[in-house]
Amino acid sequence: RMAEAAAAWSGPGRTADGQQVAVLANVADGASARTATKYPVEGVGLFRTELAFLDRADAPSIDEQIALYREVIDAFPGQKVVIRTLDAGSDKPLKFVTQLNEANPALGVRGNRIATEHPEIRASQLDAIAAAAEASGAAPWVMAPMIASAEEAAEFAGEVRRRGLFAGVMIEVPAAAILAPAILAEVDFVSIGTNDLTQYTMAADRMSAELAALTDPWQPAALTLIATVARAGQTLDKPVGVCGEAAADPLLACVLVGLGVTSLSTAPAAAAAVGARLSQVTVQQCRAAADAALATSSPAAARAAVSKVLAD
Ligand code: PEP
Ligand code: MG
Fold it and tell me: Is the C-beta atom of 196 inside 6 A of ligand 1?
């Protein structure tokens, strides 16, 4: 029955009682963005720009970047597009910027941290995004990965806003989740990266199959941090999205909405199942599911408690 509901669901994302929750796509380049338009998504919640440059020896030119960003923006005219600045390093090394001799790359100079030593790389990317936005007549949102402090968030937001764009940061470091009110005060929106947030909360490598039980997206410790971020978003009336794998699990998506998350971004193929499940539950049921999950102390117990609350 769930498969039928998913096949029939065409968006937009909303709960049974009509609360809007945008269901968005994670994309990597123009081709994947155009493919995403064939699924019931309302825009792009995460454009992982670094993926287009993984095999490059040298930094891409401004013109090359403008063309790439325009392809993604133009795939979703008039719709939301969230562009993430380079998340270089760790599992996504870029030859032209990543230091190869780090002892702990996941804890090293990755994501927005590259801008300290290579300010010109981030500046050229922001210039290219602003030029692409202007050429397309669009207003993409821009966010930075691997932000750990309010100072980093404020510095990034300043660079983005002086180019006339909406500025946000990813919340994927536990410190950023804990201090979400201070970080949200500096930016226009945040997006929670549950893959890294769970990795760093559990101190367990997201790439390790052996540690997969620890990096389960249902870990109550990570859900507790997500709750902190969502509450801060509600207090400050700013959007809080989720763009990690947690958003692709229909049952967990209901929990995220119950915690106060305002949009969900997933691999496009997962969008219909998530949207269909959300359309069957009320916000109140989502809140009850979130409370049930937060009251547990293991992923298995959280799944069981939420399945019970949302059983129809
Ligand atoms: C995340 O960390 O959850 C995320 C969305 O970013 P990435 O998977 O690209 O690190
Ligand atoms: Mg991440």
Answer: yes
Catalytic site includes residue 243 = yes
Q: Is 48 annotated as a binding residue?
A: yes
Q: How far is CA 199 from the centre of its chain?
A: 15
Residues with Cβ < 8 Å from 68, sequence gap 6 or more?
29, 30, 49, 52, 60
Tokens of 21: 């929750």
Q: Is 239 helix (H, G, I), strand (E, B) or coil?
A: coil
Single out the catalytic residue among 184, 243, 286, 292: 243
Q: Taking a C-beta distance cutoff of 8 angstroms, is the pair 43, 24 a contact? A: yes
Q: Is 48 touching ligand 1 by the criterion CB < 6 Å?
A: yes
Tens-place pLDDT, residues 89-100: 888 889 998 878
List pLDDT tens digits, range 255-301: 999 999 999 999 999 999 999 999 999 999 999 999 999 999 999 99
Atom nearest to 26 CA in ligand 1 = 5
Tokens, residue 208? 């390790």
Cβ proximity of 88 and 110 under 8 Å: yes
How many Å lie between the centroid of ligand 2 and the Cα of residue 199? 9
Contact 22, 266 (CB under 8 A): no
